[in-house]
Amino acid sequence: FLKSVAVSLTQASVAKNNSIVNKCLIVNDKEFSDDYERRNDVNFIFAPYLEKLDGQFQFSQVPIQRIFMPKLKYVGYQCFSDACLEELDLPMLEVISSHAFAGNKFVSLNLPSLKIMYDYYNFCACSNLQFFQALNLTIILPCCFQDCTKLTTVIAPNAVIKEKAFKGCYQLETVAAKGDFKCNCDDCLKCRGNFIRCLQRGAEYMEKSIQKDFGLKQRIFELEQQIISIKTQNQTQIDQISSQIGIIEQKLDFLIEMVMKK
Fold first, then answer.
1. Which of 37, 104, 192, 199 is the most buried if burial means most Cβ atoms within 10 Å?
2. Strand ranges inside the chain, DSSP E
3. pLDDT per residue as tens digits for the range 149-203
4. Cα(55)–Cα(230) distance, integer angstroms
5. CA gap 46, 1 in Å, rounded
6. How do residues 81-120 score in pLDDT, each as one tens digit?
7. How many CB atoms lie within 10 A of CB 213?
8. Considering just the CA atoms, what is the radius of gyration of the chain in Å?
9. For residue 52, which of 68, 35, 29 has the smallest C-alpha distance?
């Protein structure tokens, strides 16, 4: 990450906490509550230990393109709303609040640890977003993806969908989620009677994923068996060589004994 944002490891190591180096904010704490709303001097954030962003509007309307926060678990109200995030790699993120990532530029999201979203509009108006996956998410809140006009795929098989969740999502094709919900926004595929096909594609997607996972597990098992076989074969070869060495040593001992007798 540092190399890609033109910051050396030495610069990051010696930088004071909450300092800015080449438009990269360096944060060394587990929690951060400073307000950077509408500032334009930060494009990147390097926060390897950060676990919680619990302030409001902390980086709202700040032109942040990328962040490095591998331990982040919580994102507060409108924390990154209307920023310029082009990608989001947050493997530990569990909880986000309202408008947390609204109005950003990322195209694809995979949030494997995300479980809870509070309030509404969590990812609304992300005009480039096409793919969203959160396998542990429990609920897709009202207006969560409102006006994500390019969104085609949502994979959240354990999530309950609330009303207006997909308002204005005209390109939606595939949804893996618990699809029994009511909506009266008159501006989504559910209200237009076309949502059932999205759920069917979602079920097909999950079935293929399960088959793929099974295939990968089967391949891993086969490789493990090959490794065991190779180890067994090698051990057999080692035993054969050891036996041959033993025979040669016996012959040498015999020859030495014969020479000594002469």
1. 104
2. 19-21, 24-26, 44-46, 52-53, 66-68, 74-75, 95-96, 108-110, 116-117, 131-133, 139-140, 153-161, 174-178
3. 999 999 999 999 999 999 999 999 999 998 788 999 999 999 998 999 999 999 9
4. 57
5. 8
6. 999 999 999 999 999 999 999 999 999 999 999 999 999 9
7. 10
8. 29
9. 29
